[in-house]
Amino acid sequence: MESFLLHRVNPEEVNSMGLRVRVYGCERMRRERLIGETIVSFASIDLELETNLWLPLEPRNSSIVSFQFFPLFIHIDY
């Protein structure tokens, strides 16, 4: 589970914010490469409760049809 503590943010403004999650792969003798990314809008989840989400990773090249899913467990304090 990942936890985030937001400093200097008005609680009233949190619902208009979100989190971009990028997943990188790392191979020996190679640079990191972006596997995929997704965006979590805080307005779409109840921040008062622990929330478990399965999010689709969108590939860097949007012409690729296949998606991978990964679990994201977040806890946000403000």
Could you explain the architecture of this structure?
With 78 residues, the chain is mainly beta. The chain has one domain (2-77). 1% of the residues are buried. The strands form 2 sheets. A 3-stranded mixed β-sheet has the order 1-5-4, with no helix packed on it. Strands 2-3 form a two-stranded antiparallel ribbon. The chain is built from no helices and 5 strands.
Tell me the layout of helices and strands:
Elements: E1 2-5, E2 18-25, E3 33-41, E4 51-57, E5 68-77
Parallel strand pairs: 1-5
Antiparallel strand pairs: 2-3, 4-5
The helix-and-strand class reads mainly beta
Q: What share of the residues lie within helices?
A: under 10%
How far apart are the termini? 17 Å
* Helical run tally: 0
Rg, Cα atoms, Å:
15 Å
Total strand segments: 5
Mean pLDDT: 74
Strand content: over 45%
Low-confidence sequence ranges: 63-67
> Would you list the SSEs in sequence order as H and E?
EEEEE
Strand order of the largest sheet: 1-5-4
Shape: elongated
Number of domains: 1
Main β-sheet, in a few words?
3 strands, mixed
GO molecular function: phospholipid binding
InterPro entries: C2_domain_sf, SYT14/14L/16
Quick tags:
mainly beta; C2_domain_sf; 78 residues; three-stranded mixed beta sheet; two-stranded antiparallel ribbon
